[in-house]
Please model this.
Amino acid sequence: MYLCHSHFSLRYGTLSVERLVEAAAAAGCTRLALTDINAVSEVFDFISACHKAGMAPVVGVDFRNGTERAYVGLARNSLGFAELNAFLSEHLLGGKSFPPRAPRFDHAVVIYPLRALEREFQPADGEFVGVCWEDVTALWRWRSRLSVHRAVALLPVTFADKVTFNLHRLLRALDANCLQSNLDPARQAPPTERFHERQALLDRFGNHPHLLGNL
Model:
C-alpha cells in the first residue's frame, strides 16, 4: 500500500489529493493511504476523492522530528484516527519532539523505519518495520532480527514525475533557506517516492514477497 504526502505536507508534498487518487487509480491501486507529515488537514477531501474513484481510503500521519521520520501511524477506524490526532496535537501544541517509540494505540498500527533496528527494538502487536525501496539491498543486515510477520514495504509517494520532483526539491530548498544546488540530499525525498508499475514492485521486492502483503 502506498503512503501518500499531499501538498498539505508543507514545503514537501507537491500533489493535491485529487491528483494522488487519479495517479493511484492509473497505477491499479484499490486501496490508498494519506499520511501527511505532521498534518491531517486533507483527510476528508481525500476520503471523498477515494470514494468517488471506488478506492478504499486509509488515513494516518507521518510523524517526523524535523526531516527525520519517527514512524507512520495508520488508523484502523475512526477511533484510531482520534488516537493519532490526540497524539499529534499533544506534541505540536506542546512543542515536544515525538519520542523514539510510539504509544500503544488501540485502534491504529505503527510502521517504524528500518533504522529503528539499530537500537534495541522489537515490534510489538500492531507495530511493523517498514522497508523502503532503497532499503531492500540492506535487509541482509537485519535477517536475524526482522520477523517476516512484522516487516512491510514502506512506499511513500511525494511526487508524480520529473516536474513535480523538481518542485519538491525547490520546496525543500526554500525550507532549508539555501540554493537548490546546495540542498543536502538528506533533506529531500529520494526519486523513488512515486507510484510504480506493478512489475517494477515485484522485481524490486521479488525476493521478499511478504513485504508487499503483510499490512
Observations:
- The beta strands are 2-4, 31-37, 56-65, 68-75, 108-113, 127-131, 151-153, 155-157.
- The chain has one domain: 2-212.
